[in-house]
Amino acid sequence: MQSLSTRRTALRRAAASLAVATGLMAQPVAAQSFDLENLTPEQREAFRAEVREYLLDNPEVIMEAVSALEAKQQQQQAAADEDLVAANAGALFDDGYSWVGGNPDGDVTIVEFSDYRCGYCRKAFPEVEQLVQSDGNIRIVIKEFPILGQDSVTSSRFALATMLVEGPDAYKQMHDALISLKQEPSEPVLSKLADTLGLDGEAILAKMSDPEVDRRIKETHELAQRLQISGTPTFVFGDQMLRGYVPIDGMRQIVDQIRSEG
């Protein structure tokens, strides 16, 4: 990113060129001798009028500048995200407690930060499932990241308690059920949900207050903070971070890109 002094120098050079072209200066001089901060009132007014007229005659220049700025910001964000992912790779891809599915030996790992009450997480769920199942060579990690209120926290605690009581396969069953649950996650609703899946609902409810559940949620929140994640769903594909919902075709393109670069 350019420093303030560099930007000022560039602006002075551009202004000097424009001033010569518009007659504010009789002949070319060094850019350093043309100081925007020391124009006479008449020069400043003429300069502003010339710039305004140029932009009105060429409005596409503004859109080009905006597009260039957006592209530059996106590149900078992507580079910063790659650094964040690299610095937190262990906690992201192999924390020892998050559910891992798909192909454990897959050549591409996807990490999803998800909230059960998030509408876009629910929209993404079947597409992520389809991607993983149809590809066959993707490893997926689910991070419990409840940020949308008490119902989100309750749902995540119940899912994590299911993992502790019944194991990873039961957790995946519960995860899939909770992501589509339309009722509020009250204790009777959650207990009945567990029973319909053939799980011990009462034991899972009792486990929700276990300190290990607290630890896992806390560590995931701390990881998200380090990664500057504030919304769901957020995905990490390899070394790329995707903040928000991405349709399945877009996800496939990213997976193909990762493989082509690998």
Describe the 3D structure:
By secondary structure, the chain is an alpha+beta fold. The chain has helices at residues 4-22, 41-57, 60-87, 89-93, 119-135, 150-166, 168-178, 187-196, 201-207, 211-226, 248-261; strands spanning 99-102, 108-114, 138-144, 234-237, 240-243. The relative contact order is 0.11. The radius of gyration is 27 Å and the shape is elongated. A five-stranded mixed beta sheet has the order 1-3-2-4-5, with helices on both faces. The protein has eleven helices and five strands.
List keywords for this structure.
262 residues; alpha+beta; five-stranded mixed sheet; 11 helices; elongated
State the order of secondary-structure elements, H for helix, E for strand: HHHHEEHEHHHHHEEH
Shape: elongated
Radius of gyration: 27 Å
Major sheet strand order: 1-3-2-4-5
Q: How much strand content do the residues show?
A: 5-15%
> Average pLDDT across residues?
86
Number of strands: 5
Put simply, the count of helices is 11
> What share of residues is helical?
55-70%
Category by helix and strand content? alpha+beta
**Ends apart, CA distance between termini:** 29 Å
- Main pleated sheet: 5 strands, mixed
Instruction: List low-confidence stretches.
Output: 6-11, 17-32
